[in-house]
Specification:
The protein is mostly helical. It is built from three helices and no strands. The protein has a domain of 52 residues.
Length: 78
């Protein structure tokens, strides 16, 4: 497992944990439709992509031609 994957797993876990704790202590009501569901989606995506290496944003950026690694631009990017 790489550092990049571990960072995704930990970041996703902390997002999900913070939402869960806020809901458990009555600070957030996740039973209502709100923008917090988007936060939950982002956290869950981060968490699962650390294990599966499937990330919709990665796929979109690759299709747009964004280089995967910083050294990809050393040969001629301005």
């Amino acid at each position: 497992m790489t550092i990049h994957r571990i960072v995704r797993i930990v970041a996703g876990f902390f997002i999900l944990l913070s939402l869960g704790l806020a809901h458990a202590f009555g600070q957030v009501d996740l039973t209502q439709v709100s923008w917090l569901w988007f936060t939950l989606f982002v956290g869950a995506n981060l968490f699962q992509s650390g294990f599966t290496q499937f990330c919709p944003l990665d796929m979109m950026l690759k299709k747009l031609g964004v280089p995967e690694h910083a050294d990809a631009c050393k040969s001629g990017c301005a």
